[in-house]
Specification:
alpha+beta; single chain; 67% helix
Length: 98
């Protein structure tokens, strides 16, 4: 079954962005918009002299950094799980020979 596109309207920093997105992904777009707005508010408070693109860029870097770090941690956790599984298999194999 094909995922139909729905029209949504995201408000980011007071500007409306009408989009058509797959219905199943709508909650993710809304969550992303909320996160970006939260970061923009934070950076506006931290850097009162900055406006526009510089604030959006700082917020985007912050969000991208968090994503990259989390992705790396997930990869590391997956790798550690696989190493653990291999260790158990090796232990089982060596215990059988004894």
């Amino acid at each position: 079954m094909e995922d139909k596109n729905v029209g949504i309207n995201l408000i980011i920093d007071g500007i409306s962005y009408p989009l058509y997105v797959p219905a199943s992904e709508e909650p993710y777009y809304r969550q992303a918009a909320r996160l970006l707005n939260e970061k923009l508010i934070l950076y506006k408070q931290m850097f009162t002299g900055e406006v526009g693109v510089r604030l959006v860029t700082m917020a985007a870097i912050d969000i991208a950094f968090s994503h990259v770090k989390q992705t790396d941690n997930v990869g590391s956790a997956d790798m550690m799980r696989k190493i653990g599984e291999l260790s158990r298999l090796i232990d089982n194999a060596t215990n059988r020979k004894d």
